[in-house]
Design brief:
The complex is a heterodimer of chains A (283) and B (483). Chain A is built from 9 helices and 16 strands. Chain A has helices spanning 22-27, 68-74, 109-122, 142-148, 167-176, 190-202, 236-239, 250-257, 261-282; strands at 2-11, 14-20, 33-37, 45-53, 58-64, 81-82, 84-89, 100-106, 126-133, 151-156, 163-164, 183-187, 207-210, 226-229, 232-235, 242-244. In chain A, helix 5 packs parallel to helix 6 (190-202). Chain B is 32% helix and 16% strand. Classes of the chains: A alpha/beta (283), B alpha/beta (483). Chain A binds chain B through residues 23-24, 27, 37, 41-44, 68-69, 83-89, 216-217, 219-224, 226-228, 233, 238, 252, 255-256, 258-260, 263-264, 266-267, 270-271, and chain B through 184-186, 194, 222-225, 228-230, 250-252, 254, 260-261, 263-264, 266-267, 269-270, 273-274, 278-279, 282-289, 291-292, 362-363, 410-412.
Chain lengths: 283, 483
């Protein structure tokens, strides 16, 4: 059982949760994830570790409500317990002194790029971060990102804050101003990562993306998370989650992410109905 | 048959006139719609009749056919005499998990294959009797915690809570050692809980066996992945004196044909884990979904293929076809599982293998293209090699393909453990007699060493390793093979 130490709303449907997990806090590195199970009969859901404190024995998870399970988790309160938190899973992000690194976060992915940016800074890189969201209120962890980056660029799709446009437009500006970019890390929605990769391919800038496909066990046992990278099938849970973005088959990934769309809707409907009944019976 | 049989164990009878006793079971029409266990098991009356069919050979060939050398005539004699609890105790002298083995062992390839009564008639139903005695003991609350040896103060870590790990844990705990099992998943039992379905091995039985092991003082820690949460070296730093690795064969093979990543293509591991471990058959009450399939193809001819096919049927599929590239004779599945699957209406397509999986525009499976095969010369496994017949391509319409063509070694733990040697398939290299690996203080056994095999072989390896670990930590034999 893992106690929820704190649980805050960062933006509409985006949460910042700190959980007791001493063994994981001691071992985790940037880019790794955990699998959480709230209670009996809950799903196992993979969440990237956004940070942690090995002394306090806690890890930080930043997640967005995307389905029934994360919606339900969003209602959990400080002091409550998660049945299981297992990890740190996946290979850590490979970080060395590259030179100038661009860390790009889209939407909730900003929480996942944060530890990568921190590790890059620690390894002596010059870190330029680019974060973007649909609109101002969905921008998250800006202070953390600012603190760890030499330069922070911000965009919103609707122009409500920062640059009016996409993170790729800001990346283009960096290229245009003559920056020599040695490495790019991008985490965010699939269309964002794909757009970044399509652009950096033109300039031959090595680009790592962190993939978040459907998983069950997270230890290589089931193969639900398989993706095609460079024409070969890879298991994201043990071969990734980071891959050379120029080699990833994003079309396939997009389709595979939608495999349970109908059933997910059904799960939400069932849950909402069930919740109402529960609330009625309590009142 | 009289109710109080008089046994004459020392006089071998002629061919027994009493036929092998069938086990009462749910009808195929009924069971294909539920997940309850198929056979009900023997009643005491049937068990006694079946037990009397055993002629109590002086040199029992069945014992030699058993990987853990259960005293088979011994436990059967006790059933015939009506002392079922004693029979269960006799079983447990050699086999810590008889209720499980009675259900899932391939008896027809082991003990029953060499049974003398099987030469002219049908062999004694050893597996059914084993199951009967173990169930009797459990259901009547007669399971006793054996006397434990005085505490040795030695700490042993077991990685993985499947059949191998549970066996090692049970033995070492009885000998007075302090044992901790680390399990990566949230439930204990390994393949017994995520792989084998409820209708073949009820999870309550697995839980009872795990509870029994825990009652010996074994600590069980779930949701800890050795190799990630902690390394083998961490375990030694924590004060463990020895480590046993029984992580199983947990890396599913796929086909290597086009279309294998379409939606609707699953490894049997994924499909079965969703249903068995995550209880997707209760969706949406349970959160984990599973495909709602209409036309299902299962690839493979082993027990896992049968389990996946029969699970798909119970989840509501209209038609389930098992596609196997060899013929019926070469199927590695237990005969009983094949029989049950066919009774339930599952179709078997032999000498057939897919060349590609065909999808629709949304990325979902719509059909599988296959080739017909014929049997050629025997291959390395001794089975006749299937050879494709050119020009015989045809399509099978399906919306789901479940791949059950085997599992390789999971690389996670070896990759995180310097000094632990693996062979070219990724299996951990371990001494065949003792289970000692190339890493001093570390043993391995079961599927992670020999590749995907059976529950009983994993238990046999666990038993050997337990003895070797005991000798090592007690200073009786601290030698280590130089590699």
């Amino acid at each position: 059982m893992h106690r929820i130490v704190s649980h805050k709303l960062l933006a509409p449907a985006a949460h910042d949760m700190v959980v007791d997990a001493p063994l994981i806090a001691r071992k985790r590195k940037a880019g790794q994830f955990v699998i959480i199970r709230m209670r009996e009969l809950s799903e196992r859901i993979p969440l990237t570790i956004a940070g942690g404190d090995p002394v306090a024995g806690t890890i930080r998870l930043i997640y967005q409500e995307a389905g029934k399970s994360t919606m339900e988790m969003g209602l959990m309160k400080e002091g409550e317990y998660l049945a299981d938190v297992v990890g740190p899973l996946g290979k850590p992000t490979h970080i060395e002194k590259f030179g100038t690194v661009v860390c790009m976060g889209g939407g909730i992915g900003t929480g996942e790029i944060l530890p990568v940016a921190q590790a890059c800074a620690q390894a002596g890189n010059r870190v330029i971060s680019i974060v973007g969201a649909r609109t101002k209120e969905l921008l998250i962890v800006l202070d953390d990102m600012r603190e760890t980056s030499d330069e922070l660029l911000i965009s919103t799709d609707d122009g409500s804050f920062g640059f009016h446009g996409f993170v790729t437009n800001l990346l283009q500006q960096l290229v245009d101003r003559g920056e020599k970019l040695d490495k790019i890390f991008a985490v965010g929605p699939v269309p964002m990562m794909r757009a970044v990769c399509n652009m950096t391919r033109k300039y031959s800038i090595p680009t790592e993306v962190s993939l978040n496909p459907i998983m069950v066990d997270g230890t290589g046992m089931c193969g639900a998370c398989r993706v095609t990278v460079g024409g070969r099938t890879q298991f994201v849970c043990i071969d990734g989650p980071d891959f050379d973005g120029h080699q990833v088959d994003f079309d396939e990934l997009t389709k595979r992410l939608q495999a349970y769309r109908t059933l997910e809707k059904e799960a939400i409907e069932f849950w909402e109905k069930h919740r109402c009944l529960l609330e009625e019976s309590h009142s | 048959m009289s109710a109080t049989p008089s046994l004459k164990p020392d006089i071998p009878a002629k061919t027994p006139k009493v036929p092998r006793q069938p086990m009462p079971e749910q009808s195929p029409q009924e069971r294909r719609h539920n997940f309850r266990e198929v056979p009900y098991g023997y009643t005491p009356e049937i068990a006694v009749v079946e037990a009397m069919r055993c002629i109590q050979c002086k040199k029992p060939r069945c014992v030699a056919g058993c990987p853990v050398e259960i005293d088979i005539p011994g436990f059967i004699k006790l059933i015939a005499e009506g002392d079922y609890a004693a029979s269960a105790r006799k079983l447990k002298e050699a086999n810590a998990l008889p209720a499980i083995c009675g259900r899932v062992c391939p008896q027809e390839d082991q003990c029953e294959k060499v049974c003398v009564t099987g030469i002219k008639g049908e062999p004694v139903a050893i597996g059914r009797l084993e199951r009967f005695a173990a169930d009797w003991e459990r259901e009547h609350g007669l399971v006793e915690v054996p006397e434990l040896a005085p505490a040795t103060g030695k700490k042993i870590a077991i990685v993985g809570s499947g059949p191998a790990g549970l066996t090692v844990a049970g033995d070492l705990a009885k000998w007075g050692h302090s044992v901790t099992i680390f399990e990566a998943l949230h439930k204990t039992g390994g393949v017994l809980v995520y792989g084998i379905p409820e209708f073949r091995l009820p999870k309550a039985i697995v839980q009872a066996e795990v509870d029994y092991i825990a009652s010996l003082g074994v600590k069980v820690v779930t949701s800890v992945v050795i190799g990630r949460t902690m390394t083998i070296d961490d375990l030694f730093e924590e004060g463990f004196d020895a480590v046993f690795i029984g992580t199983g064969a947990g890396l599913p093979y796929f086909l290597g044909v086009p279309g294998e990543n379409l939606n609707g293509v699953f490894s049997a591991n994924e499909y079965l884990t969703r249903s068995n471990l995550m209880r997707a058959f209760e969706f949406p009450r349970a959160d984990t979904p599973i495909a709602r399939s209409r036309l299902v193809c299962v690839l493979g001819g082993g027990n896992v293929a049968m389990d996946a096919a029969r699970t798909a049927l119970r989840l509501g599929a209209e038609k389930v076809t098992v596609v196997y590239r060899r013929s019926r004779t070469e199927m590695p599945a237990r005969i009983e599982e094949i029989h049950h699957a066919e009774e339930e209406g599952i179709e078997l397509q032999f000498l057939t293998n897919p060349t590609k999986i065909i999808g629709n525009d949304d990325g979902w499976v719509r059909a599988m293209e296959c080739l017909r095969y014929e049997l050629g010369e025997p291959d390395a496994s001794g089975r006749r090699k299937p050879v494709p017949i050119p020009g015989t391509e045809f399509e099978i319409e399906c919306d789901t393909v479940i791949v059950a063509i085997g599992n390789g070694a999971n690389p996670l733990l070896p990759a995180a453990t310097p000094g632990l040697k693996t062979n070219r398939w990724g299996n951990i290299t371990a001494d065949a007699e003792t289970g000692k690996t190339s890493h001093r203080g570390v043993w391995a056994g079961g599927d992670i060493v020999i590749g995907a095999a059976t529950v009983i072989l994993a238990m046999g390896a666990g038993r050997q390793a337990a003895r070797s670990i005991h000798n090592f930590v007690m200073g009786i034999d601290t030698s280590w093979p130089s590699q």
